[in-house]
Amino acid sequence: GEPLDREGAFYPPTVLTDVPAGCPVDSEETFGPVAAVYEIADEASAVALANDTEFGLGASVWTEDRDRGERVAGRIDAGCVYVNQLVKSDPRVPFGGVNDSGYGRELAGAGIREFVNRKTVWVE
User: Fold this and answer.
1) Topology (CATH level 3) of domain 14-114
2) Residue 39, Cβ neighbours under 10 Å: how many?
3) CA–CA gap between residue 120 and residue 124 (Å, rounded)
4) How high is the pLDDT of residue 33?
């Protein structure tokens, strides 16, 4: 993609294919409308590629086989994994990452509890 012809720091949605190993988009969080698309030979290779990162905010699995997508999603180390959907936040469900992608959850009930100090006092 290229910068849009308008004021501001906008970047158009971009799809990357044939991404070489070690490319920054493969190992860094882009936080932009950028998708790297890979064609993978088997499930084990797909899970290994998805988990080969120090981050883990969100991931998406695209497949025609819903059961397979759910199975693969369960093996990916990320705070949110979507099957046949883009990674997004929804105020009705917790959102947050694992590893170097966050310090807990935000949104929904779990998110509220992240900002509360709970205390148990037990007296006999």
Assistant:
1) Aldehyde Dehydrogenase; Chain A, domain 2 (3.40.309)
2) 7
3) 13
4) 82
Helix H, strand E, coil C: the string for the chain is: CCCCCCCCCCCCCEEECCCCCCCHHHHCCCCCCEEECCCCCCHHHHHHHHHCCCCCCEEEECCCCHHHHHHHHHHCCCCEEEECCCCCCCCCCCECCCCCCCCCCECHHHHHHHCCCCCCCCCC
Total residue length of the chain: 124
25-47: average pLDDT = 82
Domain locations in the chain as residue ranges: 14-114
**Residue-wise pLDDT tens digits, 56-107:** 788 889 899 999 999 999 999 988 899 999 888 787 877 777 777 777 776 7
Show the tokens assigned to 7. 């004021």
